[in-house]
Design brief:
There is one protein chain. The protein is mainly alpha-helical. It has a domain of 145 residues: Rossmann fold (3-Layer(aba) Sandwich). 39% of the residues lie in helices and 6% in strands. The chain is built from eight helices and three strands. A three-stranded parallel beta sheet has the order 1-2-3, with helices on both faces. Helix 6 links the parallel strand 2 and strand 3. Helix 2 crosses helix 3. The longest helix is centred in the C-terminal third of the chain and has 20 residues. The two termini are 28 Å apart.
Length: 243
Amino acid sequence: MVRHYGEAIRDRKVVLHLNPLWLSSLRHDLRDERARRFNHPDLVPQFYPKIPSYNAPFAERLAVVVDRESSFLSWTAHLRIAYYGNQAVPVWTMDSPYANPLAPLTGDLPTDGDSPPSDPVPWEQRDLRLQDFDWVALDDSLQWRFFRETVETLQRRGNEVFVILGPFNEHMLTPESQTVYRTLRSGMVAWIESRGLPYAAPAPLPSELYADASHPIAAGYERFAQQLLANQPFYSFLEAVDR
């Protein structure tokens, strides 16, 4: 995504979120050999490096690559997705023969009508069990490789990068899984520091402020924001943005 669509943010300050959940299993790391659905497959590398969980047909991958190189095709794809229910305009007109084909082009992006069925509640109230995640080692992880390459791409473009690690619910892990996670977290922090990047890796929130493994409830997000603002490198980063 950054390589093909991030030119507009060249020479700017960028905050990157590093979510440890990406490494919690082969499925999350996109290394499961079985085909898996995941968000925004058009944004991942289509041919190299190979992503084991991504098994789209060759023609579909080629179409994605062509769209990336053509601003006009990208624009028409945007119109199709945003205004025509992800249908090609000729197909849309066949389904709506009496409608004005220009009517959907209001200029305003449609809003997502989906909303959470209820306010998130603490994970312990949802009877969720402790998790023994099958963590992926940093040296083997696709997600960790892509994160590092993203940082390096941004730095080559003159971006100043700030990394936020977490929030992650350590309380939800079994003791064994927690030990592995903390080793991985230490390795992430060591690499970030080796690059000279400013970062924030706040301590875990209280258990009752998490809704699941990586999402706090509203009060948890508020506490996490307070932790960030108390982080001097992050506060300095924000001050530089304001100026």
